[in-house]
Amino acid sequence: MSQSQETVRYPLPQQGALDAPADWQRLRSQCPVASVELPSGDEATLLTRHEDVRALLSDPRFARPTAQDGAARLAPEGVGGPVASGSSDALSLPAKGEAHQQWRRHVSKWFTAKRMTALRPGMTATAERLVDDMIEAGAPADLKAHVGFLLPVYVICDMLGVPAQDRDRFSHWSDALLSITRFTPEEIERAQVEFVEYMSGHIAAKRENPTDDLISTLIQDSAASQGLSDAELPATAMGLLVAGHETTANMIGKMVAMLLADRGRWERLLADPSLVRTAVEEALRFDTNLGFGLRRYLTEDTEIGGRTLRGGTTVICSMPAANRDEDVFDNAEEMDLGRSPNPHLIFGAGPHSCLGQSLARTELQVVLEVLLRKLPTLELAVPVEDLQRVEGLLVGGLRTVPVRW
């Protein structure tokens, strides 16, 4: 089959909430650089092979598209949250080059493995309390609501110095910013205005009364002419709040569902808890429900997978499809809890790789350790085929994760 003969509708259809699209394997082998039609009707290019996805994500020339690029639109009528459309000045940060790397240097010191080790005992205590509360509420329970959503919210709110009791507002604002089809333009605009006002007020309060948190530190660095601009401060705070809880909250639920979908996986971890770290990495690799995929806008012609893509092309990098590439992973369609090495691409690669990956890994490990210790009889309270996917957002997840014990 010629790569030029097919245009695939995207997102690709999936049967169950945890199932991989049947098209992934075919596209990797027959059409790894594929033309796709987005929900907007615009066309983009989809990458599904590990080598190609890694190469493009590692290329410092290209970044996430903005509205000014004239990139392919995601949502019908071009409607979508500012993260999907790249249309918000309030969320704009340096996209590439030295300015981007400088921004990363200022923020990344809060997300080192050493700092995560220091935070781990507090995370564990919080996770234990949340699991205890879920047990007290009784089975069946929604693990996503009781644990998966709350732990990352408490952690990122503590890091940013914002009150965790505002978590429901944060969740609504995050969903609106990440919307493709879930919210109306009016709802998105209102949420963005409210979020900007809230975070601007929070930053103003921290200027007056700094504490030992990330935002206060960034403010102090900026005052010393070493840090972020006045426009970058709220954009950074908003971006970290969204990224710091939304994706990890979803991943906690998906990880537990994957491990409980095959009882042998859970039993193996109970028998050998030392596998927790590699099991987390394998859950990240095995996840089929990441969301839309990372986009890159090509500002110049480039060769990918033996095909020249013209400048002006919008490329979607499917990390989950790349993570099933048989050329990189033995028995790629099997979940191997002891897999090592595991060069999955779920956190991206190169100059735009996820800043919070150490935080996400630590939270996932902590939750799994606590659940194995406190709830060894944990099981899904519904058949796997009844699990439902989050729809209409850039990020993927499960609506609920019903469990019993």
Briefly characterize the structure.
This protein is α+β, with helices and mostly antiparallel strands.
CA gyration radius, whole angstroms: 21 Å
Poorly predicted runs? none
- Bulk shape: globular
**Oligomer category:** single chain
- DSSP strand content: 5-15%
Q: Helicity, in percent?
A: 40-55%
Order of helices and strands: EHEEHHHHEHHHHHHHHEEEEHHEE
Arithmetic mean of pLDDT: 93
- State the strand order across the main sheet: 1-2-3-8-5
Which helices and strands appear, and what pairs or packs with what?
Elements: E1 7-9, H1 23-30, E2 33-37, E3 43-47, H2 50-57, H3 82-85, H4 97-108, H5 113-137, E4 141-142, H6 143-148, H7 150-160, H8 167-177, H9 185-208, H10 214-223, H11 232-261, H12 263-271, H13 276-286, E5 294-297, E6 302-304, E7 307-309, E8 314-317, H14 319-322, H15 357-374, E9 379-380, E10 402-404
Parallel strand pairs: 1-2, 3-8
Antiparallel strand pairs: 2-3, 4-10, 5-8, 6-7, 9-10
Helix pairs in contact: 5-7, 5-15, 7-11, 8-9, 9-11, 11-15, 13-15
